Amino acid sequence: MTTVQDVTKAPPPSEVWRRQDAAMHASGVDACPAGWPRPRVHGLPWITPVLDGVVYWTQIHGGRLLRCQQAHLCQVCGERLPERMLVLADLDGELVTDAGVHHRCALLALTVCEGLSPHLLLAEMTLADVRHEGRPLPDPLPDRWLRWDLAPHAVASAARVGTLEASRLLKLSAHRHSLGAEQKEQETE
């Protein structure tokens, strides 16, 4: 059984994901494996730590986020992203989480994640549209994760979540049909 964390008793983020990795290496079982469809527990994102059956929703698996940045992986499903990806950002262009998502994964996240606000921007972009401290990303990327934000032109062309323009970016009609059976059940719960 998977439970939700009590944030007042949660260990520090790096301790949780390091313990999760150690448990995975010891048992050979990943509590939050990459792939689509996502695990049944609320469409659990790949970068969300799970330890001893507890989902740490307010924490991010730092090692997996770094892999997302370096290998161009989706933060929700852990699979390779196409060159053009979607990102969620605040109104100033700072990404909510510093990695991209597939269209289907953005739809899932916006459907099941209560923490995602309609006061967000949805942008389709390439890595060339990402900035770190106002400058293009370094090539090659360093061995540490970087805080990402959108280039000014990407902020200007981003759609506000909940608008018709954002729905077009998500390609709702096409992607509703491609969601796995587990995700369809999650949408109705």
Walkthrough of the structure:
The protein is of the alpha+beta class. It is built from 7 helices and 9 strands; from the N terminus they run βαββαβαββββαβααα. It has helices spanning 13-27, 62-71, 103-112, 152-157, 164-170, 172-178, 181-188, and strands spanning 3-4, 50-51, 54-55, 85-89, 121-125, 130-132, 135-136, 149-150, 159-160. The strands form 3 sheets. Strands 1-3-2 form a 3-stranded mixed sheet. The chain has a 3-stranded antiparallel sheet with strand order 4-5-9. A hairpin with a 2-residue loop joins strand 6 (130-132) and strand 7. The longest helix has 15 residues, at 13-27. The two termini are 18 Å apart.
Total strand segments: 9
Tally of helical runs: 7
The average pLDDT score comes to 84
Q: Beta-sheet strand percentage?
A: 5-15%
General shape:
globular
The percent range for helix content is: 25-40%
Which helices and strands, and how do they pair?
Blueprint: E1 3-4, H1 13-27, E2 50-51, E3 54-55, H2 62-71, E4 85-89, H3 103-112, E5 121-125, E6 130-132, E7 135-136, E8 149-150, H4 152-157, E9 159-160, H5 164-170, H6 172-178, H7 181-188
Parallel strand pairs: 1-3
Antiparallel strand pairs: 2-3, 4-5, 5-9, 6-7, 6-8
